[in-house]
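Duplicate of #3305? Posting structure anyway:
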């Protein structure tokens, strides 16, 4: 289990990292802490924000003003645990672009990334680049889960196919 730090210990460690000029990697910090860093201007912080709907997009862009905006279009389609009847690629691009437009209206220089739904393979990524204003993809299941499922299933099937020689059953 990870060590838990008190608020004072956390702030002391954070200030030490900032003073040394080391990059900060924080996940799950929330919009609030990112907004406070940006407001104070005392930290060179690259802020990344996810939005799942229009309300999230507006709030994120107005309150946290991230440098990178990611629209999470939904659970990635495909694979063994993905959403089977998910959005089409065209619908994913249309919905993503609507959020990209909204984000850029609030912060014109924001970097836009696509994520999820029908974005499951490199061809889908190419489509998103050609049909939206996104400048890249934030990959999750499409690279970490789906990339290993087929080879893992094939390997497991190979082991499953191993049989005793005829008449060689052991107890």
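Output from current build:
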């Amino acid at each position: 289990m990870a060590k838990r730090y008190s608020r004072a210990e956390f702030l002391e460690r954070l200030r030490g990292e900032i003073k040394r000029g080391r990059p900060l990697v924080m996940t799950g910090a929330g919009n609030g802490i990112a907004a406070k860093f940006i407001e104070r201007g005392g930290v060179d912080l690259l802020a990344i924000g996810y939005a799942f709907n229009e309300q999230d997009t507006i709030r994120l862009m107005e309150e946290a003003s991230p440098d990178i905006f990611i629209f999470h279009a939904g659970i990635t389609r495909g694979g063994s645990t993905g959403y089977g009847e998910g959005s089409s690629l065209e619908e994913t691009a249309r919905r993503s672009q609507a959020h990209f437009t909204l984000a850029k209206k609030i912060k014109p220089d924001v970097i836009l990334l696509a994520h999820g739904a029908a974005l499951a393979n490199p061809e889908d990524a190419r489509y998103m680049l050609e049909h939206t204003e996104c400048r890249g993809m934030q990959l999750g299941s499409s690279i970490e889960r789906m990339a290993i499922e087929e080879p893992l299933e094939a390997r497991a099937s190979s082991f499953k196919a191993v049989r005793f020689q005829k008449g060689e059953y052991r107890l």
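Confirmed duplicate; merging threads. The longest strand covers residues 68-72. The chain is about 50% helix and 10% strand.
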